[in-house]
Amino acid sequence: MSEPNGGPGGGVLIVDFGAQYCQLIARRVRELGVYSRITVPERAMFTFAHMRPDAVILSGGPRSVYAHDAPELDAAILQQGVPVLGICYGLQWLAQHTGGEVTPAQAGAEYGRTELQVVDATGFLAGVRDRSTVWMSHGDKVARLGPGFQVLGKSGPCPFAVVADRKRGFYGLQFHPEVAHTEDGGRMLKNFVLDVARCRADWHPGNISETKIAAVRELVGAGEVVLGLSGGVDSSVAAVLIHRAIGTRLHCVFVDNGLLRHGERQGVEALFRDHYHMDLEVVDASERFLGELKGVTDPEQKRKIIGRIFVEVFRAKAQQKRGARFLGQGTLYPDVIESVAAHGGATSVIKSHHNVGGLPQDLDMTLVEPLRDLFKDEVRTIGRELGLPSALVDRQPFPGPGLAVRCLGEITRAKLASLRDADRIVREEIEQRDLHRNLWQWFAVHVPQKSVGVKGDARVYEDVCVLRVVSSQDAMTADWELLPHDVLKRISNRILNEVKGYARVCLDISSKPPATIEWE
Ligand code: XMP
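# xanthosine-5'-monophosphate complex -> structure
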């Protein structure tokens, strides 16, 4: 059930050479109303045969086309009769396989912003402004073009910034059109996707709900589905879609791990049980989670314990629902993309992520993942379309391990109670004023560092509450944001006066990187 809009055929296949911006290319294409899919070079021909795309985009990548470990892509991709756009490394690969020559770094590497000189403003560069800014980031460069190619644009030391063999439909950009720094990059992608490749612009996440619902119905047949509901956007939208498809044969399980925010469990019950009339079982496992977390202070150990218990609790529940052979999950496209980064390399583990979608496959159930070809913003669009309230669809991300990653050191019920109250105040003050529209996350953190204060006329020696407010596009990077002075003042006053356990409220002014959004 992975194909959009009812079946294979059409769209853009993006070959990931290990680019930092590969997902961005996929999103830009979808924003044009055209379905896109990412694959790794080794599987490109296989995916091509299955997908039958209207165009191929070759992404950038960190290697040199001459390196012994350069990604292997079957040059037959150029013989399929569809237009090909090479970006950065993709252009160099294209040049190398069409009789051109690529020379290594030093001899003219370019990084950062540079000016584009448009040589031919028709077709692919139609509407692209001469002297507009483009974003370069490359070591190697094309030194000579193969037969049939012409130059459409130059930039400073780069004579082959935009090239094309119009007859064969091969295009190349030495810079990155997908990043915001390239002023007319969107126009170039649009020209390639809609005019050169003539892709159908019929991809819209809002109008695919019915296709998704039909696909779930077909997959599940008369069977039953168990779904771990976290109350987050992804599992909630997945639940509503699956519920539309199979009604009471969907069984939702919500695990209360004792690490939830104020009102979270009640909110899930009110929406899914009372409003949608779903079969929802709430499992109160808080004793077990908090019991096993007792005395544990190491962040990674905490995360691992929480992830393990969640799986055990959920597994036991799923097995009780004996008729259910299917496991519903809110898995998103970024979790399943066949990217080079995901496939290998020794990327260091910053944090062991845990969420409801991270269940092991050995549950021996067939997965039902209606969102697995969608990006987060597309899932939000579907959620709105399905009538989910804005409070849920637009809510801030909340990590699988819950308040545990915001309650530093050993977790105790008393600390959690203080944190929960402080977090409620932060949310109330920001959301009432509608200040959260441009924010990614806004929450409180409990820091078990005692400091002296005075409350009433008495000396207190209590912990620190930290306010964390960040903006971000995708959580990969984040900026701290400053709230208006009066709002900060009110949040601080309320926390110090209404919440037990804090002698001080501090503001976190760290960006990511080097800090992370969550504290643990
Ligand atoms: P960091 O703290 O790594 O967080 O900058 C990036 C984003 O991921 C969220 N987060 C998690 N989400 N399970 C999740 O589902 C997790 O274990 C987890 N840890 C962090 C975090 O809230 C932020 O949006």
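# post-check
Residues 1-7, 343-347 have pLDDT under 50 and may be disordered.
The radius of gyration is 26 Å.
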